[in-house]
Every structure is written in C-alpha cells, then in structure tokens.
Amino acid sequence: xxxxxxxxxxxxxxxxxxxxxxxxxxxxxxxxxxxxxxxxxxxxxxxxxxxxxxxxxxxxxxxxxxxxxxxxxxxxxxxxxxxxxxxxxxxxxxxxxxxxxxxxxxxxxxxxxxxxxxxxxxxxxxxxxxxxxxxxxxxxxxxxxxxxxxxxxxxxxxxxxxxxxxxxxxxxxxxxxxxxxxxxxxxxxxxxxxxxxxxxxxxxxxxxxxxxxxxxxxxx
Length: 220
Prior knowledge:
Helix content: 40-55%
Order of helices and strands: HHEEHEHEHEHEHEEEH
Largest sheet: 7 strands, mixed
Number of strands: 9
Number of helices: 8
Distance between the termini: 37 Å
Radius of gyration: 17 Å
C-alpha cells in the first residue's frame, strides 16, 4: 500500500467508471480529444511568467495571493474540478500524503477549484488538508492560466445529475482542465502537468523531482 502510486489509484477509478457507464466513458474520450486540440495548446507553458492572482482560502476566507506564497518558496499550483470529482479527491489525498516531503524541499502547495467556499471547505475538511485550498468562484485563475473550457452539450445531461450548472453559480458549465504548475520564486513556470484527460494527474514523485531541480538551480 505504501508503494501505491497516484496513477494506480486513478487507474482503478478509471476502470470502474468505464465498466459502470461505457457510454459516458466514450463521451468523455470525445471531450478529451477536443480539449487536447483546443485548450491544452493555449495553457501557460514552461518558461512563462505565471499570472498573479488573489483568491480566498476555504479555511478562513482570508485572501491569498500567489506572489505572497512565492515569498515562502516555489509554489505547486494544482487546479481541480470540484469536491464532487472522485479523481480530484484522490489527487488531494495524495498531495496531503506527500506534503511533508514537499515542504522539506521548500515547496508550497495550493489547491484551486472553481467552486463556492462551502464546497471547497468540504473538500478541505474531508482530507484535513495542511495547505490552502482556494476557491476560484468566478473562474479568474483558471482563465488566467488558459485551462478553462465549457462543458459541451453532449455531456450536460450527465453532469446535471451532479447539480450542474447551479452547483457552481459563478462558473456554471465552465471547468478547468486539471493541471499542476510548479512556479519558482521568480514567478516562472518550471514544470507542469496539463492533460485534457481529467483522470490523469501529476504524480507526487514527479512533483518532488521537479522541486529538486528547481532547488538545484537556485543553489547553482
């Protein structure tokens, strides 16, 4: 169990979902292909200056600005879909587990979702997150990083069962491609994981390896 990777846990979810509803899985594959062509190429890339933003913490509703957090160390900025997404929950649990190792390397995680404070707070409490979960209720951060898209008509009936579009009053049918950016203390993106397929996330081991590279660059 200790050697279990994030991908192995996500793969189990992926297989169960495909078995439960192959029709919806096929529609998601169509979505992934469309997003890979239309959204992924426009996401912020390696060497880009990360856009600064200010969002509020689910824990205490206090403002947190990306540039403030960079004062403490390189930021691991991960965008998630919502408290309702099992893949986002598994990703968060893995980040919480990896948090001591991330902090040992000076990293500062931020988890950002396009939802209300109440929903983000539910996510935070469920996993007892030791790092900030920020709610991007209007979608400004996901827009700034170029990872937002609007749910196509052919999937809306399935997402209505989850409470869309009312579940996120500020963003409606708009969601981010789940993405992780490692931003150094100069505000430059040094590593990223951007995948149109929401069932695939940045592996904590890869985040740690990227943090080590950033640390080596600083030392040099």
